From TrEMBL:
The lineage of its organism: Bacteria, Pseudomonadati, Pseudomonadota, Gammaproteobacteria, Aeromonadales. This is DUF2931 family protein. It comes from the Bacteria. InterPro entries: DUF2931.
Length: 145
């Protein structure tokens, strides 16, 4: 089981490359193996989700399987560091590397972002906490081995 994760993502909103580096919990394997009874079937949280929001805010979550054991478990959150040492970005700017994708994204959502400004950075934390708090609680029947 890994004890660290290092991931780079490009934010289409920010037009920047971010690096997320996190220490994962020592008991991650145990958490991923824990089985729950959800609607009469077995399920577990066995999916690591790395999310990036505008302004570099990231969360690492342990999510449920197909049946929907929930709520998600927050493993880490913070502000990702902007990557300034990537050799590709030094040779070809991000705007050119992702030219078609960024143009489509900007065309599709640019006006909405101007009309409805979105949070940046850690302003996402209470929004995501509220989202998790509203998730149904289906992990009330853990199965012990």
């Amino acid at each position: 089981m890994p004890d660290k994760a290092l991931l780079e993502m490009v934010s289409y909103h920010d037009h920047k490359r971010y690096r997320i580096e996190v220490d994962l919990p020592a008991d991650l394997g145990r958490q991923m193996q824990q089985v729950y009874l959800v609607d009469g079937r077995h399920d577990r949280r066995d999916f690591l989700y790395f999310g990036l929001a505008p302004g570099g805010y990231y969360e690492v979550l342990l999510q449920g399987g197909l049946l929907g054991v929930s709520p998600d478990i927050l493993l880490a959150r913070g502000i990702a560091s902007e990557v300034t040492d990537d050799w590709r970005d030094k040779r070809i700017p991000i705007a050119r590397q992702y030219k078609n994708n960024l143009a489509v994204f900007d065309e599709k959502y640019g006006a909405l972002f101007k009309q409805y400004p979105i949070p940046l950075g850690m302003a996402w934390a209470p929004i995501m906490d509220a989202y998790r708090a509203a998730q149904p609680k289906t992990d009330e029947q853990p199965i012990t081995k």
